[in-house]
């Protein structure tokens, strides 16, 4: 299959394919099978992994074209965002066929089993253990902040396989079956009232030796690949997977539904990213006009700052694309984008609450309350602003805290000295526990 070369060719090619193949009367599973096999569902993946080998900026164009056409977008979630590109990078040919195809066709949903109660910012301090038992490993431990764990078929699991090695060297990365005995998922209720995250308790669950990604005790290198994709995908200017009302995998129950019924409209512009970063600036501009604050010089100044930051995020992505086309790279771009996203969300939170005034102290957790609050200043946008404000604390923590991003940029990009410790040479079992 020959790769398309220009933006116009990409858009024309995907629209031509959609004209010939989109059928709203297919089930979600049937449509995603067709879409995923074509390479257009995950065009950023290599051709050998059901992709087109396109750069991120062209992936965004493909997502836009699918949305504008009115077809059901690709299966969203951590499978497509993190697991598939990681396995495409580190997995064997057999693993790529075994795991990537069900991701791009929506047949299986994934979650990320990295963080633990005592190993968040210091991820390499994880204590979930994997003990060899013939051709299998027995897993015991606890994970936390697991997005989508309640609907996941598989998880990207980090477990300690060699406690006698230094802590970064004794970790292994597994493709882990979430639907087996010994796995318990408990939702964590957030400030917003939602439960996007979960705790996962694993008690003597099993995983095959053939499900190790990147080799035994090499999990830290594989995990860093996943984290790089996560930071790039979450960061300002990183784009976002096409939105869909359908959830991939066997647990959510959407695969048998009519594809045309699961399409929902979405707006895109500017920087993209989580929390609707692209739409935040125009949203807050509209609210400022609605409440009569658009002539306030301080409000105007922050609206301009917000618009500027989202544009910088977009241009950062374009800059990286140009550098890669020239055979170069921008060190730390994923970390910079992640920090930018956190800054944008904090500014959006503060500005939005200033615009709402006392209304900003009220947030509804049910339909009746939401409808009642639309009568107050901010109207239907008020609930969007208060939810964004409540959620704004999370992005500066998940995907690596802002402090960790600064450390990585300082140490790995600027070459600043690390804090002195013996982590690189001391066996993990001999390290002090907090």
Explain this structure.
- The protein is an alpha+beta fold and 434 residues long.
- It has three domains: 7-105 and 233-260, Orthogonal Bundle (Butyryl-Coa Dehydrogenase, subunit A, domain 1), CATH 1.10.540; 110-223, Butyryl-CoA Dehydrogenase, subunit A, domain 2; 269-400, Butyryl-CoA Dehydrogenase, subunit A, domain 3, CATH 1.20.140.
- It has twelve helices and seven strands.
- The strands form two sheets. Strands 2-3-7-6 form a four-stranded antiparallel beta sheet, with no helix packed on it. A three-stranded mixed beta sheet has the order 1-4-5.
- Strand 2 and strand 3 (136-143) form a beta hairpin.
- It is globular.
Fill in the keyword field for this structure.
Butyryl-CoA Dehydrogenase, subunit A, domain 2; 12 helices; four-stranded antiparallel β-sheet; 434 residues; alpha+beta; Butyryl-Coa Dehydrogenase, subunit A, domain 1; Butyryl-CoA Dehydrogenase, subunit A, domain 3; single chain
> N-to-C SSE series?
HHHHHEEEEEEEHHHHHHH
| CATH fold field value of the largest domain | Butyryl-CoA Dehydrogenase, subunit A, domain 3
How many β strands by DSSP? 7
- Considering DSSP H and I runs of 4 or more, what fraction of the residues is helical? 40-55%
Arrangement of strands in the largest sheet: 2-3-7-6
Task: Just name the CATH architecture of the largest domain.
Answer: Up-down Bundle
CATH classification class of the largest domain: Mainly Alpha
Count helical runs: 12
Largest sheet geometry: 4 strands, antiparallel
* Overall number of domains: 3
Overall average pLDDT: 89
The amount of beta strand, in percent, is 5-15%
Rg over CA atoms, rounded to whole Å, is 22 Å
Structural class: alpha+beta
Report how far apart the termini are: 54 Å
User: What general outline do the C-alpha atoms trace?
Assistant: globular
Q: Give the uncertain stretches in residue-range form.
A: 1-5, 265-276
């Amino acid at each position: 299959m020959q790769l398309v070369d220009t933006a116009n060719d990409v858009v024309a090619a995907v629209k031509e394919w959609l004209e010939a193949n989109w059928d709203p009367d297919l089930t979600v599973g049937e449509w995603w099978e067709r879409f995923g096999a074509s390479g257009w569902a995950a065009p950023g993946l290599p051709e050998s992994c059901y992709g087109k080998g396109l750069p991120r900026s062209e992936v965004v164009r493909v997502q836009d074209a699918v949305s504008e056409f009115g077809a059901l977008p690709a299966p969203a979630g951590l499978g497509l965002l993190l697991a598939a590109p990681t396995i495409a990078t580190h997995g064997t040919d057999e693993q790529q066929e075994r795991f990537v195809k069900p991701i791009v066709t929506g047949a299986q949903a994934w979650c990320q089993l990295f963080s633990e109660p005592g190993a968040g910012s210091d991820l390499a301090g994880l204590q979930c253990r994997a003990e060899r038992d013939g051709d299998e490993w027995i897993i015991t431990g606890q994970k936390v902040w697991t997005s989508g764990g309640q609907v996941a078929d598989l998880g990207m699991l980090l477990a300690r396989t060699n406690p006698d090695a230094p802590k970064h060297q004794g970790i292994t990365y597994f493709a882990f079956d979430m639907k087996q005995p010994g796995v318990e998922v408990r939702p964590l209720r957030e400030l917003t009232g939602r439960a996007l995250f979960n705790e996962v308790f694993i008690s003597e669950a099993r995983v095959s030796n053939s499900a190790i990604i990147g080799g035994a005790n090499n999990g830290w290198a594989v995990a860093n690949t996943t984290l790089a994709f996560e930071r790039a995908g979450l960061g300002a200017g990183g784009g976002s997977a096409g939105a869909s009302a359908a959830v991939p995998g066997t647990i959510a129950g959407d695969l048998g539904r009519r594809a045309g019924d699961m399409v929902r409209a979405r707006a895109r512009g500017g920087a993209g990213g989580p929390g609707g970063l692209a739409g935040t600036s125009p949203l807050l501009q509209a609210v400022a006009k609605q409440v009569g604050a658009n002539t306030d010089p301080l409000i105007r100044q922050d609206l301009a700052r917000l618009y500027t930051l989202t544009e910088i995020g977009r241009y950062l992505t374009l800059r990286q694309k140009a550098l890669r086309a020239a055979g170069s790279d921008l060190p730390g771009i994923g970390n910079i984008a992640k920090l930018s996203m956190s800054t944008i969300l904090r500014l959006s939170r503060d500005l939005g609450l200033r615009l709402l005034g006392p209304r900003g102290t009220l947030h509804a957790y049910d339909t009746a309350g939401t409808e009642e609050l639309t009568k107050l200043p901010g109207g239907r946008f008020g609930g969007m602003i208060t939810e964004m404000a409540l959620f704004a604390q999370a992005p500066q923590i998940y995907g690596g805290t802002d402090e960790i991003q600064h450390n990585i940029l300082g140490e790995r990009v600027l070459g600043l000295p690390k804090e002195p410790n013996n982590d690189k040479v001391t066996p993990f079992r001999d390290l002090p526990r907090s």
